[in-house]
TrEMBL record:
The keyword Transport does not apply. This is Junctional adhesion molecule C. InterPro entries: Ig-like_dom, Ig-like_dom_sf, Ig-like_fold, Ig_sub, Ig_sub2, JAM-C. It is a single-pass type I membrane protein. Residues 9-124, 131-228 form the Ig-like domain. GO terms for biological process: cell migration. Residues 1-23 form the signal peptide. It is found in: Cell junction, Tight junction; Cell membrane. GO terms for cellular component: bicellular tight junction; cell-cell contact zone; plasma membrane; protein complex involved in cell adhesion. SUPFAM superfamilies: Immunoglobulin. Keywords: Cell junction, Cell membrane, Disulfide bond, Immunoglobulin domain, Membrane, Signal, Tight junction, Transmembrane, Transmembrane helix. PANTHER family: JUNCTIONAL ADHESION MOLECULE 3A, JUNCTIONAL ADHESION MOLECULE C.
Length: 301
């Protein structure tokens, strides 16, 4: 009886080991990995348990929801054909990674002799791309009190670049109110879009400006560009105003003169139309009957 009780745990242990042995179990050291462009990265697919010899191992790349084979029938295929190799036991080593390699990768292992003959594991890969030299736009000259905007952008970096502006090689704080030196400046910096907008330019805003694009893969910057700030040209503004007023007066006088001449012409035309015509012979248009009547009267007398 005692021997039976002692053998019971051994039987349970044997059954547990037997069940565990005949099952495919996979694991990975990291389900979310990254690398910089042109570097190498290894996706780990570790087989913790398996009984079948020579199991079927496959890797698939899933991008935008569409799967494609990476390792199938014991060879690498697709866009990784010459840039990846399978390493024991089922790891995938990607060489010279490119931005197009950013995707999800699924490791699948099938073992027909195991009670649990299939297992899979999903790994997400992000390939970081260093920013290229950003395109910077800085106005050459600005008048004091006017609004102006500087631009900086680049579209190659991944993840999306953040932007930082510098004046005379000194970093501008994102909020000028946090710095005693830049407290009176009116600029607004957008680190997401790369814009640097001055609401009202001041003399102390003059200098050489350059922008730096930065992400997790590295940094890149454009060459410094000068921005000069001038005082308003009061004399020039006055001359322009006076010129505008003179031109306005000239136009008004011209219109009045044209209107006046037009009215005189119409008046003369109306007088000519309605003037009673004069007869040159100035004959007395007396009725014939009236002369005949006087003659008759004299005859009676």
């Amino acid at each position: 009886m005692a021997n039976g009780r002692q053998s019971l745990p051994l039987v349970l242990f044997f059954l547990l080991c037997h069940r565990t042995t005949f099952a495919v179990i996979l694991r990975t050291t990291n389900k979310s990995v990254w690398t910089n462009e042109f570097d190498s990265i290894e996706l780990t697919c570790l087989i913790e348990s398996i009984s079948t010899n020579n199991p079927r191992i496959e890797w698939k790349k899933i991008k935008n929801g569409v799967p494609s084979y990476v390792y199938f029938q014991n060879k690498v295929s697709g866009d990784l054909e010459h840039r990846a190799i399978l390493r024991e036991p089922a790891n995938l080593l990607i060489l010279n990674a490119s931005r197009s390699d950013s995707a999800q990768y699924r490791c699948e292992v099938a073992a027909i002799d195991d009670q649990k003959p299939f297992d899979e594991i999903l790994i997400s890969l992000a390939v970081r791309v260093k920013p290229v030299v950003p395109r910077c736009s800085v106005p050459n000259a600005v008048t004091v009190g006017y609004t102006t905007e500087l631009h900086c952008t680049e579209k190659e970096g991944f993840p999306q670049s953040q932007y930082q502006w510098y004046r005379n090689n000194e970093e501008l704080p994102e909020d000028p109110k946090t710095s005693v030196k830049f407290y009176n400046s009116t600029y607004v910096m957008n680190t997401q879009t790369g814009s640097l907008k001055f609401r009202s330019v001041k003399k102390e805003d003059a200098g050489e400006y350059h922008c730096q694009a930065k992400n997790e893969a590295g940094t890149s910057k454009c060459s410094p560009q000068p921005m000069e700030v001038y005082d308003p040209d009061i004399v020039g503004i006055c001359l322009k105003v006076l010129g505008g007023v003179a031109a306005f007066i000239f136009v008004i006088v011209g219109l009045c003169q044209i209107h006046k001449n037009g009215c005189c012409t119409c008046k003369d035309h109306r007088e000519n139309n309605y003037k009673v015509p004069e007869h040159e012979n100035r004959m007395d248009y007396t009725s014939p009957d009236e002369g005949h009547f006087r003659h008759k009267s004299s005859f009676v007398i």
